[in-house]
Amino acid sequence: MKLNISACASGFIFGLGLILGQMINPVKVLAFLDVAGQWDPTLALVMAGALITYSFLRQIINLYRKKNANNEPKGSIIPKAKIDAKLIIGSALFGIGWGLSGLCPGPALLGLTSGLLGSYVFVVTLFIGFFVFNVLHRQR
User: Fold this and answer.
1) Nearest to 31 by CA among 43, 17, 21
2) pLDDT digits (tens, 9 = 90+) for 37-63
3) Which of 22, 58, 89, 137 has the most Cβ atoms closer than 10 angstroms to its Cβ?
4) CA 64, CA 115: separation in Å to the nearest integer?
5) Within a 10 A sphere around the Cβ of 56, how many other Cβ atoms?
């Protein structure tokens, strides 16, 4: 099996960022989502940092693609997805799950390593959701 160093490093940095930003703490996340109560805006800084980093790297990728446009095979650039009912429903379900549990998939998977019971419940239901999706949307 070939080890992809950049993928491992990216995963490690992502996990470290989740830990430092306290994104694996459901109480912290739920406090951020509680805008009508005891709102904790600190996770907004985590999200802003992620957006700034993404924007910077996206510009570098765009420059690289323009520079090497002749070397890329046709169809290698991912087409933009259309906004449809599946996307809206899926986004709403994701948001509802995040709001109810205080976890999203990355932090929940990281929470498995620290023995958080809520993470185990979340990940089990996540995989049940994957299974149900595959059954409902199986190509015939």
Assistant:
1) 43
2) 888 888 888 889 889 988 998 899 888
3) 22
4) 42
5) 10
CB–CB of 107/24 below 8 Å?
A: yes
Q: Which residue, 96, 97, 119, 115, is CA-closest to 107?
A: 119
Q: Cβ atoms within 10 A of the Cβ of 18, count?
A: 19
Query: Mind spelling out the 3-state secondary structure of 17-80?
Result: HHHHCCCCCHHHHHHHHCCCCCCCCHHHHHHHHHHHHHHHHHHHHHHHHHHCCCCCCCCCCCCC
Containing 4, the helix (H) or strand (E) segment is: none
Specify the residue for token string 């491992």.
8
Residues in contact with 103: Cβ distance below 8 Å, sequence separation at least 6, in sequence order? 24, 26, 29, 111, 118, 119, 122
Give which of 133, 26, 39 is closest to 86, Cα–Cα. Answer: 133
Query: What is the C-alpha to C-alpha distance for residues 138 and 130, in angstroms, rounded to an integer?
Result: 12
> Is the whole model's pTM more than 0.85, yes or no?
no
Read off the tokens for 3: 């080890």
